[in-house]
Amino acid sequence: MRRGRTREAGLVRHDGRARLFVVAGLVVFVIAVYVVVVLGVGALVGRTSSPSLPLSVLATAIVALAFEPVHSRLERAAANLLRGGAPSPYEVLSRFSENVTGSYPTEELPSRMAALLGEGTGAAWAQVWLTVQGELTLAASWPGTAEPVTEPPQLRADARDSTGELRRAVSVRHAGALLGVLRLHERPGVPLTSVEERLFTGLAAQAGLVLRLAGLRAELAARLAELAARADELRLSRERLIETQDAERRRLERDIHDGAQQHLVALAVNLRLAETVAARSPDRAVKVLEAQSEAARAAIDTLTQLSRGIYPRLLAGEGMVPALRAALAISPIPVRVEALDVPRLPTAIEAALYFCCMEAVQNAAKHSGASLVTVTVGTVDGSVRLTVADDGQGFDVSSAEPGAGLTNMRDRIDAAGGRLDLTSTPGVGTRVDVHVPHRRVPEPRGS
């Protein structure tokens, strides 16, 4: 504390010397004007016995007009001589708008503010924090060579920072909104003087619009990065969907070739055989035809299984909720379906939600050991919400690798423009939440 008082006293002495320098300079200026104008010009015109009244008035006018410019120059000279060229705290504050918002790009404003704050207060380091997407983010640190402190400030009512004994922090607000925080670290044993404290709070009071501009730019940059990451995720999900669709197409081609096609080829051959032998052996033709009814039923069963794997008929005809009720009624695990006023949705959205729900229930049946799965479907704020929750054993989501089933679910929902969130607690259960923006499908006329 004694060193703080000594430093403040030294600054006061420096300010006293500066004022003495300015006063002495002004006295010299006034005397010089009087000597040059009154005595010098008077000597030239032959008035040496007594001062000329007109010359005295002229000298007074010159002093009055030149007093303020000379005074400013003398103050700057005193600052250069007594402060080593560094501006005083008052000068820093008075020139804030010029130094910060002059010709500097928006991205450099926080750095300029941190430098002004550090140089004006003599702090060990200074920082400018911005509120970006609701969180404080370090925007600039001074000096740039030092390793910045990345721990967010914790403001106290006395403009102190709870994260360190020598740290100070003050909030910057505009129209009641927190735009950022100015923060500094005092030098050990050299606390801020009252003048520097006023500079600290004064900068915070004037920095609202500046930090608002810098904060908006940071918000836009963060949003751009978020959109770029989202675009990459969508691109990858679409690539995976295309690969999955190609694999599914090849599987269907194989199943059709090896299953239904073989049944139909055999049926066609036997029908031609019956036609051939009908004229010569009607009894044999009847037996051949009787045998083909079983072959036709087998072909129908094979095609039915294939069609169910492609797109459920009930989903296309009556909608997602009836299709889910029918499909989950034969689930190996008990499933309760709760539907709350779900309208007909576009085909792509209904398909994405249907297959996502079926995948989630299958995962629960395979891995959760649950006694009950609850499926809830409803519309909330312009989006359809699907929740699949089980009371199984759960797992640690942070340490588990996403499987193919979860990846397929995310890809389907991403392609529909929605979001899928997975939460699980060991011993409690697992929950899948899906939100997809929707629009109603117009009702057919006459329905």
CATH class membership of the largest domain: Alpha Beta
What is the CA-atom radius of gyration, in angstroms? 42 Å
Tell me the number of structural domains. Answer: 4
Largest sheet: 5 strands, mixed
Shape: rod-shaped
From the helix content, strand content and strand pairing, which structural class follows? alpha+beta
Order of helices and strands: HHHHHEEEEHHHHHEHEEHEE
> Which CATH-level-2 architecture of the largest domain?
2-Layer Sandwich
Helix content: 55-70%
What's the end-to-end separation, in Å? 87 Å
CATH superfamily membership of the largest domain, which one? Histidine kinase-like ATPase, C-terminal domain
Q: Could you walk me through the main structural features you see in this protein, from its secondary elements to its overall organization?
A:
The structure is a single chain. With 447 residues, the protein is of the alpha+beta class. It has twelve helices and nine strands. Strand 8 (419-425) and strand 9 form a beta hairpin. Residues 1-14 and 443-447 have low confidence and may be disordered. The chain has helices at residues 2-44, 53-82, 89-94, 96-101, 109-121, 194-206, 208-278, 282-310, 313-318, 320-328, 347-368, 404-415; strands at residues 125-132, 135-142, 167-174, 177-185, 335-340, 373-380, 383-390, 419-425, 429-437.
